[in-house]
Write a structure and sequence with these properties.
Radius of gyration: 18 Å
Helix content: 25-40%
Number of strands: 8
Distance between the termini: 35 Å
CATH class: Alpha Beta
CATH topology: Rossmann fold
Strand content: 5-15%
Order of helices and strands: EHEHEEHHHEHEHEHEHHH
Strand order of the largest sheet: 3-4-2-5-1-6-7-8
Structural class: alpha/beta
Bound molecules: adenosine-5'-triphosphate, magnesium ion
């Protein structure tokens, strides 16, 4: 199982949209994905139409000693499962003030690692736009971080601060955390500033910046609140195609990083479709292979 955090300390940079887009794209490519909403504002959960979830089956439960991962019932969405945020996350945060409180999620995952590993290939955390005990918990429990960044001044500053946070977490709390990947979001090719900041990020962070970019897409700004994603309601929109490409590239990078560290084949390296048990409804080929080929370049 690969665990990753989607984070940027600056707000509105496309974290939630990216967590959702990547989860849906990975799900379409046959991987079993658990998306965890660790943002107390719960926009991800709301976007997916989940209101007032049972606390025992929400991300709040990750901060409870009694929780066993295998007993958590995530909500099935379109191609992935969701562990929604709960309204009490904000209140709970006030009591998470000890230095050891950044290890809750890591420990809960470690306890249930074998159950979760057999159930999911990828676990993705959506986080709030701040360094909170929740975003730190996510990074401490993760192998990877994805930093969505719109190529503009404030999001780029936020992304650089977030990069520094990942370095601190890596050196002090989680040596297993790999170099983060920057994912350019809400990119508008006509804006000169966007070109400038894209160039700047590639010069400064080189290979850490994914080649795939997410362009502005009106389809991505929609919030149907019925559990569907852009892949359901606008599969031909560029927002769907961009997240399919980004997910493919990200998985390839994750696999490359893993095989550099350890030669043994990991679960996530299984080819799309193989991840599920035989006979179920896994797509025969990845979204990218099957669907992208048939997607004409219809702008949205
Ligand atoms: N590629 C895109 N094209 C058009 N609109 C987008 C795109 N990506 C995100 N948006 C819109 O931009 C807004 C901010 O996106 P999102 O909520 O994903 O950011 P965030 O980083 O999660 O924000 P927050 O810090 O508040 O959690 C949302 O209204 C979303 O629908
Ligand atoms: Mg968000």
């Amino acid at each position: 199982m690969v665990v990753a955090t989607v984070c940027n300390h600056k707000g509105g940079t496309g974290k939630t949209t990216s967590a959702l887009g990547l989860a849906a794209a990975l799900g379409l490519s046959g991987r079993r994905v658990l998306l965890v909403d660790l943002d107390p504002q719960a926009f991800l959960s709301r976007t997916l139409g989940t209101k007032d979830p049972d606390a025992r089956h929400s991300s709040l439960a990750l901060f409870d000693e009694e929780t066993r991962l295998g007993a958590l019932r995530a909500q099935p969405m379109s191609g992935f499962d969701l562990l929604p945020a709960h309204g009490r996350l904000t209140r709970r945060m006030r009591r998470l003030s000890k230095p050891t409180d950044v290890f809750w999620v890591k420990e809960t995952l470690a306890q249930g690692r074998s159950e979760a590993t057999s159930e999911y290939d990828v676990l993705l955390f959506d986080t709030a736009a701040a360094v909170t005990v929740y975003s730190l918990n996510a990074l401490v429990a993760s192998d990877h971080a994805v930093i969505p960044v719109t190529p503009e001044y404030q999001p780029v500053v936020g992304a650089e601060q977030t990069y520094q946070t990942t370095q601190t977490v890596q050196s002090r709390l989680n040596p297993g955390l790999a170099e983060p990947h920057f994912l350019l979001t809400q990119v508008d090719g006509r804006k000169r500033a966007h070109k400038r900041y894209r160039r700047y990020l590639r010069e400064q962070y080189g290979e850490c910046v994914l080649q795939s970019v997410i362009r502005t897409s009106s389809a991505l700004a929609r919030t149907p609140e019925d559990g569907t994603t852009v892949f359901d309601y606008a599969p031909q929109a560029r927002g769907a195609r961009d997240y399919a490409n980004a997910a493919d590239e990200w998985v390839a990078r994750v696999e490359a990083a893993r095989s550099e560290r350890e030669p043994a084949p990991p679960e996530v390296t299984s080819s799309p479709g193989e991840a599920r048990s035989a006979g179920d409804d896994a797509p025969a080929a990845s979204y990218s292979a099957a669907a992208r080929a048939s997607l004409a370049g219809s702008p949205d």
